[in-house]
Amino acid sequence: MEKKRTNPIILIVLSLFSLACLIPFWLVFMISVADEDWVTANGYSFWPGKFSLVAYQYLFEDAGKILRAYGVSASVTLIGVVVSLFVTSAMAYALSRKEFPLRGALSFYILITMLFSGGLLPWYLVYTRFLHVQDTLMALIIPGLIGGFNVIIMRTFFTNSIPPSLIDSSQIDGAGEFRTYFSIILPLSLPVMATIGLFTTVSYWNDWFTSLVFIQNEKLFSLQYLLTKTLMNASFLQTIANKAYSSTAQVTTPLESIRMAMAMIAIGPLVLVFPFLQKYFVKGLTVGAVKG
Amino acid sequence: MKWLKKSSVVLSSLVLTSVVAAGCGGNNAANSPAGTAQPGSAASSGLKPYEVVMVFPDAPQNDNQRVQDAMNDYLAKTYPEMNMTVKLNPIDWGAWSDKTNLMMASGDKMDLLFTADWLGFQQQVTKGGLLPLDDLLAKYGPDIEAVEKDYHGPAKRGGKLYGIHTHQELGGAQGVYLNKELVDKYNFDLTALKSGKVEDLEPMLQTIKENEPGITPLVAPSFPLEAYYSSTNLDSIVSIAAINTVGTAADDYTVINSYTTPRYMELAKLTNKWYKAGYINKDALTPGLDAWKKIQAGKGFAFVSDMDIIADMEIGKAAVSPNGSIKAGREMLQIPLNIDRLQTGKMTATMYAISKSSEDPERAMMLLNLFYKDKELLTLFNFGIEGTHYVLKDGQVALPEGKTTDNVGYYHDIMWQLGNQMLNYTRVGEDPNKYQNYEKFNEQVSSNPSRIFGFVFDPEPVKNELISIDNANKTFVDGLKSGQLDPEESLPKMLEKQKVAGADKVIAEAQKQLDAWLAENGKK
């Protein structure tokens, strides 16, 4: 009974917190379905006085561009996440094994990449001069493949939740390194895979800067870059409006409701991904896996 | 787990193949041969085929490639002896700074590059990213010289020329736009504005405020303290350093802090008063706010901004603004309150430069020169292909039947960026004499040069101070401009912060350099 009395308070706090997360979404959604002139005249509002679906209609008519960008974002995210999980976990697994001779050196190497980065220019040079991946999807996939932090999280998971005796026993039963990794380790590490998978999904899906740096070809613009681009163009042109050519440069900023409608469309997949991953966030996987 | 094994193999092989494919196919575009050049002609001139890469800020155009091909056909037909092709490489406005800095730092091949003082021209020169153009211009730029020879001074750094100014209007006019409908409704007397003083707008704003609920009398963002103050009162040098031209003798070259003039205080107080009285919209500083849209929605009466350049402009003379009326979707009057003097800064606001990474600067200069002489080439660049992207109606450019600016495939308004703007067609709806008006206006402007026309300040010795001053200003300037801060209270605070940031040092440095320049030019 004692415990139950604290429940409402927790409930209220959590509800307020969820509201704080939901209200901005609501506002964006409402502007996206509001009448443009009404927004211009009265500003943002949680319940616009006049509704119109013109923005979505416009996006629908311009669907080619948006769908293409959607495709780019989706394929980059999909390929990126799968490959990234594979490489990250493979590396983390190797680092988690005490028998691995280069363990210390490689861990240190990973730590270095977390502390220092080469900087934008060397990054650009390597990608354009050595790898020649500019204007290809590879340019969007490679940068997110391995994050030092993710490797360390996985390594910790492997060391803490997979008993070494389990690996020993599987090897006694005749499994090689790869067999051990694929049949024993991976199935046991679904929680960490789901967690890191979610991280990388979000970072791939939301990444626009890489597109800005490496992509010139309009056909390969990702959805987020398309969105960022319209906003950046608008704000940049506004800052220069008083400097150069307000009289000659005709600047058209994209309509408020269209920007918000694009944002709504871009949010979509991420909202859907999370519930599907939730079931993997379970504990107690390893209980009973080792014969006592 | 079998499927996992399989799929990972498939995936990694997929990734590998795409890496290989990218490695092979990534660079095809850069070295495509100039297929249209006629072989015979090249041999006679002895020039190897060369592709001139033009980098300029613009929204991406769907038909960029088609227009580029058309330009190349035209070049091959008309100037076979030059044996060059062009590659149009537009870069989005929003990505411009990041991208061009990277391209420059990494030495990517660029030939002609659009640049301007507000796009980091100074830094590009300092970093050594641009080539000096004096000799190239003398050799290959006769048509540039024909129209621009008097205006090279401002783009010189360390005695060498680094940018070629686009031939266009040499200044602007600032003033106030008024919603004509409301002017007629209340029979406003516009002759009051003959004074050129923005103060004389006040009675009108008051009338609108009292009688038209729901209409903002003065729509911001575009404030009296912005272009209007500096252009009417100052010959700006850098950041805060300027010469006060109001109430000082014509040979007075004292550098002052532009925020300390009595006029600044006056205007700041006025704006603050207007803001308090509710004449200015409260959301003036919201990013993304567009004054024209407010007017379009029927929610605004007036705003202070740069004017259209039309025939017979003079201070206080009201006329219908053609572009303004288009943008606002209703008849707009414009009344100039100031007509620019010839300013050094304006000459560096739109230029083309030649990048250090150009493999054949001579050819780049030849191409740039063509844009100052060849109307057809310029029209291809600005309006696209005739019949596809535009049609001519009575000598003006119009969209083809049934096309809109969105779906025509090639539509941009960047005539102001390149070449000799006076060669261009006008668009339907514009004054057919637009460019004659420009030429007339240029005479007006150039007959009245600023006291320090041609003087270029070298910011190097006070680089850090300039950045600190910028940061000090950030906290206050916007608030003062929009009238949200009380200048009595905030202005002294800002000046104090500027002092701490090194304002005095900047002003002393400006004075020192200016005195040296004056001595050099026998003005003192």
Account of the protein in words:
Chain B: One of its GO terms (molecular function) is phosphatidylinositol-4,5-bisphosphate phospholipase C activity. Chain B: Residues 1-21 form the signal peptide. The complex is a heterodimer of chains A (292) and B (524). Chain A has one domain: MetI-like (MetI-like fold), CATH 1.10.3720.10. Chain A is 72% helix and 0% strand. Chain A is built from 14 helices and no strands. Chain A starts with a helix and ends in a 14-residue tail after the last helix. Chain B has two domains: 47-169 and 344-456, D-Maltodextrin-Binding Protein, domain 2 (3-Layer(aba) Sandwich), CATH 3.40.190; 173-343, Periplasmic binding protein-like II (D-Maltodextrin-Binding Protein, domain 2, 3-Layer(aba) Sandwich). Chain B has helices at residues 2-25, 39-45, 64-78, 96-105, 121-126, 134-140, 142-148, 180-186, 202-211, 224-233, 262-276, 291-296, 322-328, 344-347, 361-370, 375-383, 434-446, 463-481, 487-501, 503-520, and strands at 50-57, 84-91, 112-115, 156-157, 160-161, 164-165, 173-179, 216-218, 234-238, 241-244, 255-257, 300-306, 319-320, 332-339, 351-354, 391-393, 396-398, 426-427. The longest helix of chain B has 24 residues, at 2-25. In chain B, the strands form five sheets. A five-stranded mixed sheet of chain B has the order 2-1-3-15-6. Chain B has 20 helices and 18 strands. The chains are: A mainly alpha (292), B alpha+beta (524). Chains A and B meet through helix 2, helix 4, helix 6, helix 7 and helix 10 of A and helix 1, helix 4 and helix 12 of B.
Please give a quick description of this structure:
Chain A has 292 residues and is mainly α. Helix content of chain A is 72%, strand content 0%. Chain A has helices at residues 2-32, 36-42, 54-61, 63-96, 103-115, 120-130, 137-141, 148-161, 164-172, 177-188, 190-206, 209-214, 223-241, 256-278.
Jot down its keywords.
heterodimer; A: 292 residues; MetI-like fold; 14 helices; globular; disordered C terminus; B: 524 residues; alpha+beta; D-Maltodextrin-Binding Protein, domain 2; 2 domains; 5-stranded mixed β-sheet
